[in-house]
Amino acid sequence: MQNKQRLELTWIGKENRPRLEPRILLEDPEKSYHAKKRLTDSDIFDNRLIFGDNLLALKALEQEFAGKVKCVFIDPPYNTGSAFTHYDDGVEHSIWLSLMRDRLESLRRLLAANGSIWISIDDNEAHYLKVLCDEVFGRECFVASIIWEKADSPRNSARQFSSDHDYILVYSKNPDWTPQRLPRTEESDSIYGNPDEDPRGVWLPGDPYANKPYSKGLYTMTGPSGRTFKPPPGRYWRVSEEKLRELDQDGRVWWGPKGEARPSIKRYLAEVSDLVPRTLWHKQDVGSNRTSKNEMRALFPGDESFTTPKPEKLLERLLLIATQAGDLVLDSFAGSGTTGAVAHKMRRRWIMVELGEHAHTHVIPRLKKVIDGEDSGGVTETTGWKGGGGFRYFHIAPSLLEKDRFGNLIISKQYNAAMLAEAMCKVMGFTYAPSDELYWQQGRSTENDFLYVTTQTLTREQLAKLSDEVGDNRSLLICCAAFRGKADAFPNLTIKKIPSAVLAKCEWGHDDYSLNVASLLKAAPQVEFAPLVSEQTLTPKQARRRAAQPNLFTTDENGGAE
């Protein structure tokens, strides 16, 4: 058997990958928003709007949400070379591929085993994106290329062709993913009739022939008028002669109004299932660019900031196919917030990420209208939405490390004790779970493996005391400023210094991964590490937010950890 060759897309800079710093997310209660009261038992309040670079945000979400997202929808920059209001939509081709690759890999880690990802794109990069997705998700996980009719009329100024459609590429986490069927519509049911007044209701005549060879499918059938029928050359009866006569006796075969027509097997509307999704989505069914423009004008009169957002009906159909109520939906290119608005109305949980200032000027006001029941447009009527629920607003914490005025690396002055402990848990792959009883249990990776973070320089006596408290059946990773003695002196302790422990895991200081990838790959300069101080300086706003949290870095009168 010949080995299958895996084809890969190549481009300049593909081998370069950012070593992302796993940041923590900080909630800003002043920007979070919730309904004043619970309207139904299914109201969802823990949705998340994250402000910041979407690649850093995805990395920040991985620890908590890996394998939990049911549906990802993204509408990334199309890389058309045109100037967009809120992001640069004309980066160089190889850079665009690198930017997309890094994000797609993170999104795949977030997808649930029965999850799917839907990516809106146009002809400019669609076919490169298809090959890239084959590489990231596996060609066997390709589901469909949906054609969305986005235009209402031709654009006569087009130099060659007027583009009427965009694509939506659909991939699943696993090859056996099955889409949900769509609810039947009046149009789909209108083709059913009942010319013989069958008491079982309206029906549709079905083709009695099949192309697949069937051993009992070659026979001659005599109809009520005496006329005989047999399959055309190369075709076969779909059922055996005995079965067809049985169906005829039951009134499930139609011979035409005079009993002379070729037999048709009835398919009753009452017995058919919902509709199988199709790959051609017409504007009259899911809206067009004009539809979405009108929706935005209704939400923000006189504001033309967004010229081509996605219509709400498009997202509604997508979520009907990919999710059920309560499932988690993620959009890391939130734009005007359509995904979150529709998911909210359909009672799905959602996470959106957006870096542009329109996260504050458009997304938050739009979501507030949805929550308050003041958005009457889009899919509000079809979903029966009356308001309720809410969302939490987060921003990405600054980089854990910064340089002091002498050029030495220190922990960012914006971090307090609790923030530092949570950040080091993420960097080292631990779950942040501070104990109320044991000061050294700030994070855990297993039931018996813990993490402790301190800005102290630990003496051998302090390490010996920690080793005794941890015991033989548990282990502790200590991240500290420095320590005295040998690192392997205590079998149940692993000791690492900050910030060298951070530098060994990831790069630092990058807050924007939307620019030229090449500029992100320079190694951090080699600098001397300054001593870490025990007290970190906070801005007034952060001080108020963290005031209620305990100080984890206090020391006793002898200088040891309490």
UniProtKB/TrEMBL annotation:
<dbReference type="GO" id="GO:0032259">
    <property type="term" value="P:methylation"/>
</dbReference>
<feature type="domain" description="DNA methylase N-4/N-6">
    <location>
        <begin position="69"/>
        <end position="361"/>
    </location>
</feature>
<dbReference type="Pfam" id="PF01555">
    <property type="entry name" value="N6_N4_Mtase"/>
</dbReference>
<keyword id="KW-0949">S-adenosyl-L-methionine</keyword>
<dbReference type="InterPro" id="IPR002052">
    <property type="entry name" value="DNA_methylase_N6_adenine_CS"/>
</dbReference>
<dbReference type="InterPro" id="IPR002941">
    <property type="entry name" value="DNA_methylase_N4/N6"/>
</dbReference>
<comment type="similarity">
    <text>Belongs to the N(4)/N(6)-methyltransferase family.</text>
</comment>
<feature type="compositionally biased region" description="Polar residues">
    <location>
        <begin position="551"/>
        <end position="562"/>
    </location>
</feature>
<feature type="region of interest" description="Disordered">
    <location>
        <begin position="539"/>
        <end position="562"/>
    </location>
</feature>
<keyword id="KW-0808">Transferase</keyword>
<keyword id="KW-0489">Methyltransferase</keyword>
<protein>
    <recommendedName>
        <fullName>site-specific DNA-methyltransferase (adenine-specific)</fullName>
        <ecNumber>2.1.1.72</ecNumber>
    </recommendedName>
</protein>
<dbReference type="InterPro" id="IPR029063">
    <property type="entry name" value="SAM-dependent_MTases_sf"/>
</dbReference>
<dbReference type="InterPro" id="IPR002295">
    <property type="entry name" value="N4/N6-MTase_EcoPI_Mod-like"/>
</dbReference>
<dbReference type="GO" id="GO:0008168">
    <property type="term" value="F:methyltransferase activity"/>
</dbReference>
